[in-house]
TrEMBL record:
The keyword Isomerase does not apply. One of its GO terms (cellular component) is nucleus. Residues 328-371 form the RING-Gid-type domain. It is found in: Cytoplasm. This is LisH/CRA/RING-U-box domains-containing protein. GO terms for molecular function: ubiquitin protein ligase activity; zinc ion binding. A zinc finger (RING-Gid-type) spans 328-371. Pfam families: CTLH, zf-RING_UBOX. GO terms for biological process: proteasome-mediated ubiquitin-dependent protein catabolic process.
């Protein structure tokens, strides 16, 4: 709804701006036409031209230009633009609250960890000079240990952008055993991409020799894939009609670059996505809810600052869910270290605090809220997701 309101306000400003521009062009064209007409009248006079004739034409031109009244014509349209622009600004200020500090709570961050995260982010995205500057000025030499590894990754990705797979294939060869342990077929995909590149840009014989050298050792495990590639040899010169034409899509380069990045970061013990990007994106997603909560609790500032758990849910979407979440079906509270999920004898799960209330602080047995079986607090066992 809010985005729709903003779009409507923007469309009104845009429409008024176009009308104002059109009116300005119309007035300018009128001026140009009268001036050109006056020049034509002067040129049509017999030579020599008398000063009186020139004066007469110029006086007439002045009268016509004054009658156009450009100020009056433009004032109204520009006024409407200004009015709608002012309304648009107020709409933005109302919807996008510029004072996001209301949702801020003082948290004792460890400067060392924050600096480390930022430096690693810059190394991850390839801004090595910026990361080095931060490491030196913040005094965080530990972060620089990953520089050479991320430099290696970016060299591979840069080579792939230039259709050069050799650095990536060398890395796969070095880490072949580790890749096998996690069931990765990254090597096959890189070799397949190299085979396709040769088939598209060189001869059939070159592609066949490459397959014999590099693909044949994988035949016992990936025979189906290799048979498809051998079938492509029959379509040289008309690869667009090949039944396996999807193998020649340029999107495979981007997809494989992402997969290479994911495997590389995994071996480094790093997440695929930048933690800093995730934090910022999650903060942007949850900010509207936090701002509304801050406004509602403006009169209870101390209570808001002292809260250990938010009183309202902040829905960040599945892309920001990195672990299982259990919500007690009785209390509707989310499980925590202090209030963990507990398994009853019947197989149902409640949070510890709910079991404590049902058992009167573990002084008697209680009936499960979802089945007729009874249990005691001592019989319940903590479970882990």
């Amino acid at each position: 709804m809010e985005l729709s309101t903003i779009k409507d306000a923007f469309d009104r400003v845009s429409k008024k701006q176009k009308l104002s521009t059109s009116k300005s062009v119309e007035v300018i064209d009128q001026f140009g036409h009268e001036i050109e007409q006056a020049l034509a009248n002067i040129q049509s006079l017999q030579v020599p031209i008398s000063p009186a004739d020139k004066r007469s034409i110029l006086v007439e031109l002045k009268t016509k230009l004054s009658s156009i009244t450009p100020h009056n014509q433009l004032e109204g349209s520009q006024k409407e633009v200004n009015i709608n622009l002012s309304k648009y600004q107020k709409t933005l200020e109302k919807v996008f609250n510029p004072d996001i500090s209301k949702a801020y709570r003082n948290v004792d961050f460890d400067p060392h960890i924050v600096n480390h995260i930022i430096a690693i982010h810059f190394y991850r995205v390839g801004l090595f000079d910026v990361a080095d500057c931060l490491v030196n000025e913040a005094g965080e030499p530990e972060a620089i240990s990953l520089k050479t590894r991320f430099l290696e990754l970016h060299q591979m990705l840069e080579a792939m952008r230039g259709r050069n797979l050799k650095p990536a294939l060398d890395w796969v060869s070095t880490n072949r055993e580790n890749l096998k342990q996690i069931g990765s077929n990254l090597e096959l995909k890189l070799l397949r991409l190299q085979f396709v590149e040769i088939l598209q840009n060189r001869t059939r014989a070159d592609a066949l020799n490459y397959a014999r050298t590099y693909l044949s050792p994988l035949a016992s495990v990936h025979m189906d894939e290799i048979q498809k590639l051998m079938g492509c040899l029959l379509w040289v010169g008309k690869l667009d009609k090949c039944p396996y034409s999807d193998l020649f899509s340029p999107t495979h380069w981007e997809i494989l670059a992402d997969e290479l990045t994911q495997q590389f970061c995994s071996f480094l013990g790093q997440s695929y996505g930048s933690p800093l990007n995730v934090v910022v994106a999650a903060g942007v997603e949850g900010l509207p809810t936090l701002l509304k909560l801050a406004n509602v609790m403006a009169a209870k500032k101390q209570e808001w600052l002292a809260m250990k758990q938010l009183p309202v849910p902040v829905d960040l979407g599945k892309e920001f869910q990195f672990h299982s979440i259990f919500v007690c079906p009785v209390s509707r509270d989310q499980a925590s270290e202090e209030n963990p999920p507990m398994l009853l004898l019947c197989g149902h799960v409640l949070c510890k605090q709910s079991i404590s209330k049902l058992s009167k602080n573990s002084t008697r047995t209680f009936k499960c809220p979802y089945c007729p079986l009874e249990a005691s607090a001592a019989q319940c066992r903590q479970i882990y997701f």
